[in-house]
Amino acid sequence: MAIRSGVFALAASALLAPTSARAIETIKLRLPLLETDFVIRVSELRSPQALMAGDSDLAELDRASGGAIGQKLKAVMQSNLPLELGAVLRNAQGSPLLEQVLLLVGALGDIDGLPEPLQPAQFEAAMQRAAAQGGISLLDVLEQLPGDSVTVQLGRLGSSVQRFRAQRRQADQLVASLPAVTSQGPWLEAGRFSTARRELTIAVKHRPEPLAVVVLESSASVPASAPASDRLVVISHGLWDDPSNFEGWASHLASHGYTVVLPRHPGSDQSQQRAMLAGKAPPPSPLELALRPKDVSAVIDAAADGRLGLRRPVNTQAVLVAGHSWGATTALQLAGARPTPSRLKELCDEVGHPSRNLSWVLQCNFVGSAESAALVDSRVLAAVAVSPPMLLLFDVESVQTMPAKVLVVSGNSDWVVPSGPEAIEPMGRATRSAGSGHRLVLAERADHFNLRSPQGDGGGALRGLLLAWFNAAAQAGPGVTPQLPAGGWGSSRHPLRDVTTTLPQLAVPAVVQP
Fold it and tell me: Which phi and psi angles does 146 have, rounded to 5°?
């Protein structure tokens, strides 16, 4: 297990290394509380004969195990990486997203004898030489590293794991202390309206290409007395995701009379991810922080002027928005959350900060662009933000001036955007102000991805909650706080708990430590 952890850390550490005449010869795995390093000689990983004849710690263990350890390690080391690494690195140069990944990786280990400054651009030439041999393996990467040896501090890996566990602890305690919301009620059942699905594109001013959207709406007339008779919902997908993973949400809402539109954000959708991994495109630009909310506002504009060809008129002055992950951040922007560039600049380089988590890689990508991303749309009446990265990005003080009310949903098993720092901390501070109207719901056993709902899934664990919140918002109207029902919108798959009223009593740490 220690060997595997060290190998994968080293594979990632390769991104940090410039080319040098001297190459890495040994790998040292340093265990916490021990003074002795476990040494692996890179040259011994090329063949069974070299390993059996070698004198490193790995060679001795391999001989003792009859060759079993070496065979497993070589299988990992000599497998080609499943992407065009050289082209990816070339297109990623200068990206804040890459810089944050390098910062995290560099915290795991030390390269002895490495020249400075670290210049990832120089590593591309070495990888091209390796790729000329027929693909890039992890062993190719190691052989191109400059310096004398690589020391992987496994204690640092352990510290990171402990920090992630601590970030989940408060959510686990809240889940254990409160009863789950009942999971039987009309909000969980499919509505009486059959639905129709269409795909189309609309011209937008802020992008050179048309914006692709999916529309789901009732195929029959909806009585004016229904809460959703003229209501428009816009759903924003997450980073490298697709509208299809949220059509379960959309279908459930459409069956109850809502008109639902799902835009495909072209700068950060699945096709952009495929192009990036093939070396044909750079990582998502920090400018996407502003472009994504503009996509949603453009959808509202298109609904207002008839370009969506909707079956019935919708109230484009009281729109409902939902989003997941980066799409949830988009929903918060539209609802009126104000970005904080100063906090990003101050904390993004603090690798050991107790609140640091994987979502900081994305949030810190917006250093330098956050000041232009305050893009509230006054037509948004209420929003649902599922697993939103927000601790660094948003100013909690802006809560009092937000025109829309927000329901935040977080999974207590989410390692990508953990509940503690990214939901409980900011929402805890927000709810200390009486009458904010925003709410936080925790989903038990939910990770970063299993709260989504693709087509045919029936809406997933959040279908009742989405419907209940949007019905409450539609009935309350502008300027009135929606009242989430006490029960009937829960889930047996991922039990849900509204923890809003408990937040003011929690001890919430300061984001910036004195």
Answer: -85, 170
CA-to-CA dists, residue 306 to 198, 203, 261, 342, angstroms = 15, 13, 14, 41
Distance CA 435, CA 433 (A): 6
- pLDDT tens digits in sequence order for the chain, 514 residues long: 333 333 333 333 332 233 334 566 776 655 554 445 667 677 777 777 777 777 777 677 677 667 776 676 666 666 665 445 455 555 655 556 555 555 554 554 555 544 444 455 555 555 566 666 666 665 666 666 556 666 655 555 556 667 777 888 999 999 999 999 999 989 999 999 999 999 999 999 999 999 999 999 998 888 888 878 899 999 999 999 999 999 999 999 999 999 999 999 999 998 998 887 677 888 899 999 999 999 999 999 999 999 999 999 999 999 999 999 999 999 999 999 999 888 888 888 887 788 888 899 889 889 888 988 999 999 999 999 999 999 999 988 777 778 899 999 999 999 889 999 999 999 988 877 656 789 999 999 999 999 999 988 999 999 999 999 999 999 987 888 899 999 999 999 999 999 999 987 776 665 544 3
pTM equals 0.78
- Do 246 and 274 contact (CB within 8 A), yes or no? no
Nearest to 8 by CA among 116, 83, 58, 81: 81
Element (H, E) at 411: strand 405-411
Q: In angstroms, how far apart are the furthest CA atoms of the chain?
A: 82
For 5, 23, 125, 199, 381, the CA distances from 150, given in Å and listed in that order, are 14, 10, 20, 52, 54
CB-side neighbour CA atoms (13 Å) of 332:
31
Q: Hey, what amino acid is at 93?
A: Q
Residue 120 near residue 16, CB atoms below 8 Å: yes
Spell 29-66 as b/e; 16+ CB within 10 A means b.
Answer: bbeeeeeebbbbbbebbeeeeebeebebbbbebbeeee
Q: What secondary structure letter does DSSP report for 149?
A: E
What is the Cα–Cα distance from 75 to 151, expressed in whole angstroms? Answer: 22
Sorted by sequence, the CB contacts under 8 Å of residue 505 that are 6+ apart come out as none
Tokens 């919140």 correspond to 469
